Amino acid sequence: MNFPSAEFDDAVAAVCQGTGSEAGIAILHATLRAREAARDDYLWQVELHARLASMAHTPINAPALLVNEKPRFPSAKRLALVKWAVAAAVLIAFGGGLYWQRWNTPAPNGNISASRKDGRNMSRADDSKPLLATGEFGFEGILRTTARFARACDAPIIVGTGGQEPIELGAEVPYEHRGDTLHVWNWSRSRQSRVMKDVRLLPDQTFCLSPDGTLLVWAQGHVLNLTNGERSTIDLGGAFHVDQEGGTLRRIAHLQFTPDGRRLALLLSNLVLTKSSHPLRRQDLTTAPTLQVVDFPSGKLVCEFPAGNEGDHLPLAFSADGKRAVAQYYQGKSGSRIVERSALTGEIRREYEPHLREYARAIGLSADGSLLAACDSEGDALLWDTLTGKLKHKLSLPRLAGRAHLRFSPDGKLLAFSLFSLSRPSSKLVVIDVADGAIVATVSQEESSGDTSGDIHWSADSKSFDVISDLRGIAGHQVLYNMYPSVRTWKIDDIRKP
Fold first, then answer.
1. Is residue 175 a contact partner of residue 480, using CB atoms and an 8 Å limit?
2. Phi first, then psi: what are they for 79, rounded to 5°?
C-alpha cells in the first residue's frame, strides 16, 4: 500500500468505522509497521479520539442541548486524554490477532455518492459501539465524517453542512440525520451561520469555494452563487466513474480554485487496465492520479499532468495569477521532490533543491510569487527564492507528526505557520521574518487553550491573522457530535517576541 495515498486514507477510515476487511487490515498493518510517517498520520486522527475518551468514562445522563458552545474537555486534561488515545491506537495498529466488531454506521461516511439511501437513521441509544482488540480492550468512540467544510482563500467565508437552524462557529451540535443543509459563515460580520434551507450539501460530496467566497462549486458540476442564489453548471466530466450496474467509484478526489478564480484544478483518479498475471483474470484495475486544470466557468481543458501520489492533492499551491503550480512528488525513502510547473501547459519549470526528507504537510507561494515555502513532515521549514531556485532559509520547527498550515502575509514580509505535533501532543503558531529567516513570534497551545491549529487568513494590512480550526464531525460513546470550526484573531504586535 502506497503512503501517502487515497488508498491509505480509505483504509484508515475503514478501520475507524469498523468496516475494514481482514485483508485490508493486514495490508494497513504492514504499512504502519514499515513507515514511521504512516504511523504518525494514523495517530493524528487518534488525537481527535482523545475528546471521546472522557465520554467513555463519564456517562451522559442529561439530554443533549441543541448547541453546546462550552468546551467539554479542560485543557489541563487534554494531554492525559491524548496519551490514552495514542496508547489505544498503538495497540490497535500493532497488536496481533485483532478482532474488529462491525456495526451499522450513521451516514454519511464520506465514501458513498449523494444517491445513497441506506444508513441515514440511527438510534440515540446506540450511536456508536466499541471497537474491541485482543484482551477485550474497549476503544470507546470513533471518528466519522459527519460534517464537511470549505473556506475561501481570500475572504472570511466558510461553508459547511448542518441542520435547519443557524449554528455558531465553534459549536458542538448533536448529530442529526438531516444534517445536509448548506450553512454559510462570514466571520467578519457574525459568528452565526446563514442557512440556505433549499440547498443540500452532503459530507460525502467534493466541493470548493471561489477565492472571494461568492461561488460554491460541486464536483458534479453544480455552481451556486452564494450572494444571490443563482444556479449554473459546469461540465467537469462527472464526479464518479459509473458501471453498468449503477455502482460508483470517485473520479474527482479534490477540487480547488486558482487564486485568481479563473481556473479550477481537479485531482482525478483515472482508471487504468493492465494485463493480469492471474490465470482467471484478464485485467487488473488500478487508478492513476492526474491533475487537470480547466477554465472556469467554461470547463475547457487547459492542461493535464501527473499528480504523483493520490494523497498529494493537498498541498497544491498556485501563484496569484494562476499561471504557476507547485506540487510534491513522493519518492519513498528518497523523500519528496518539490516541482513547479506551468499551470497553462503542465510543463516542468523547476525542481527545487534540496528534496524534502519526508513529505510536505503544506506548500505556499507569496503574493508576488517570488518566494516558495514548504513544511517537511520531518520538522523542517524551507524557503526558496523562485526566481533563482536557491534555498533562502531552512529552519527547524516541531516535528510535524500531525498537520500544518502556512501562509505568507499580503506584503510578503512575514510567513505564519500553524502546526500540530503528536510527538509531544501540542499545537503552535510560529511567525517568521522572511528577510532574515528569524522567528519573530510564537504561541503555544498552553498559551492559547489550543486555538492555534488550523488554516490561516491574513488581514489586508499584514498586522494580524485569523486561525480557522479544522475540526470535523466526531462520534461519542452515547452522543454523536458535529464539531464546527472556530476562528481566533492574532495580532502580530501582541505575540511578537520581546
1. yes
2. -60, -45
Name residues whose C-beta falls within 8 Å of residue 268's C-beta, 6 or more positions apart in sequence. 251, 252, 253, 289, 290, 291, 292, 307
State the DSSP string of 278-332. STT-SEEEEEEEEEEEEETTT--EEEEEE-SSGGGGSS-EE-TTS-EEEEEEE-G
CA distance 220 to 205: 9
Residue 268 bridge partners (DSSP):
252, 290
25: nearest Cα among 82, 102, 112, 81:
102
Which of the two residues, 467 and 378, has the higher pLDDT score? 467
pLDDT in the model for residue 355: 93
Cα–Cα nearest to 392, from 376, 378, 379, 374: 374
pLDDT in tens, 4-26: 766 776 777 777 656 667 667 77
pTM confidence score: 0.72
Phi, psi (degrees; rounded to nearest 5) at 314: -130, 130
Residues in Cβ contact with 260 at an 8 Å cutoff, skipping those fewer than 6 apart: 211, 320, 321, 322
Residue 50 pLDDT exceeds 50: no
Query: 385: exposed, middle or buried (C-beta count within 10 Å: 0-12, 13-18, 19+)?
Result: middle
> Using one digit for the tens of pLDDT, what is the confidence trace for 86-130?
344 444 443 332 222 222 222 222 222 222 223 222 222 222 222
Residue 341: beta bridge partners? 325, 348
The residue with cell 485483508 is 23
90 DSSP 8-state letter = H
**C-alpha grid cell, residue 118:** 441506506
Long-range interactions of 267-273: CB distance < 8 A, separation 24+: 267/291, 267/307, 267/310, 267/313, 267/316, 268/292, 268/307, 269/6, 269/241, 269/310, 271/241
- Yes or no: say if 259 and 154 are a contact pair by the CB < 8 Å rule: yes
Cell numbers 489541563: residue: 76
Sheet with 172-174: strands ordered across: 172-174, 480-483, 474-475
196 has a pLDDT exceeding 60: yes
Q: What is the mean pLDDT of residues 210-222?
A: 97
Q: Please, is 135 exposed, middle or buried when counting C-beta atoms within 10 Å of its C-beta (0-12, 13-18, 19+)?
A: exposed
User: What span, in angstroms and rounded, lies between the C-alpha atoms of 192 and 194?
Assistant: 7
How many CA within 13 A on the CB side of residue 388? 6
Assign 7 to helix, strand or coil: helix
